[in-house]
Q: What sequence folds into this?
């Protein structure tokens, strides 16, 4: 837990509007500090420097896709223990619901996603 007593969530997503949605949905609870990066490589640097409690990671981003970001984070001793939740439009809500948000051993949230759905997913992992 960070000095503020809040859990720190890092959002790595190419869409600024999605980063804002996460900040609004999670930040308003008072339990989470949300930081974000719209560029994958910046997100990796932020993860290393700020050691968040959880990373919300989009799979479909320019230049470096989310799976490559995840591999980089998992190969790094400083970041490999940080839980990653993939947030993507590449799978459907039906797929994630049927498999209880776990696909291939990884936690997924399907876009489009509401603030309440994000809050439930984050709460499930961080409690």
A:
């Amino acid at each position: 837990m960070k000095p503020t007593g809040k859990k720190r969530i890092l959002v790595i997503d190419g869409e600024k509007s999605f980063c804002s949605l996460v900040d609004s949905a999670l930040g308003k609870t008072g339990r989470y500090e949300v930081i974000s990066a719209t560029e994958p490589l910046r997100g990796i640097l932020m993860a290393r420097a700020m050691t968040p409690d959880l990373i919300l990671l989009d799979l479909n981003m320019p230049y470096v896709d989310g799976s490559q970001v995840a591999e980089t984070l998992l190969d790094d001793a400083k970041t490999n223990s940080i839980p990653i939740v993939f947030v993507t439009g590449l799978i459907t809500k039906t797929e994630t619901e049927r498999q209880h948000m776990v696909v291939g051993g990884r936690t997924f949230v399907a876009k489009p996603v509401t603030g309440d759905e994000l809050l439930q997913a984050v709460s499930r992992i961080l409690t």
